Amino acid sequence: MMKSENHPISYNPKRTLEIRPLGGEMIKPAELIDIQGATGLSLAARRLYNRLLANAFGPDMGYEGRDFSIPLSELRGTHAGNERISDSIEALMKTVVIVRGLDGRTTRVQLLGGNDMVDSERRHGMLTYSFDKRLAPLLRESVVFAKLELAALQAFGTKYGLALYEALSRRVRLHHVFHEDFDVEAFRNLLGVPEGKLPSFGNLRQKAIDPAIAEVIKLAPFSCDVEPVERVGRKVTKVRLRWWVKTVDEMKAVYAESHTQHSLLLES
């Protein structure tokens, strides 16, 4: 069991699936945040998966074989057709991830199980879906989670920013823990950088890390930074991710910058 001083504020002996999210937020079990194998998923697929999780969230997710339904209109967003929904669903079904439990167990699961999509002139569009049966017991025993703001989830423009936001939302609630060190490869996986892409740390920082940090600072109630802490020769081998809750002045600065950018768009 985790030491009490390291329990996140979100730790609850009632278990994650019994927590009731507040309006405008979703609860995401930690077991579905720090996973390996999801680097090929697009931003659209990640957004859709969060929507499916939020719709299904509750004790029923802890039972094998349960089906959940959601209107297609809630998944389309700004896209009128179903093609992008179908693409994202198939990508989720093909993605096998590694989930590591707090008890040391390693489980490989598909992110999304079997599903049916009905959309015709005679019936309202509906997606009925399920999760991998091996995911159910992991979620049933989950006691650590992240609270994610639904508006922020939709506002992120890159999958790297969204992934960093989710990872930090879980960690920022820890007591007396304000940073974590990662091997560069592990941090690439956390951000969702595909294997072989952005191979040098300079490219990784410019194309993935810095844009992700900028989005988090703009959209989240916390800030973060990433700095190298270990090198072998000239090669960066380990980085440190630091996080902190924004001060009032930091919140005001972000708001002022956002307001200025909005005014410039209106004038252009």
TrEMBL record:
Pfam families: Rep3_C, Rep3_N. It comes from the Bacteria. Residues 28-168 form the Initiator Rep protein WH1 domain. Transmembrane segments: none annotated. Gene3D superfamilies: Winged helix-like DNA-binding domain superfamily/Winged helix DNA-binding domain. Belongs to the initiator RepB protein family. This is Replication initiation protein. It comes from Ponticaulis profundi.
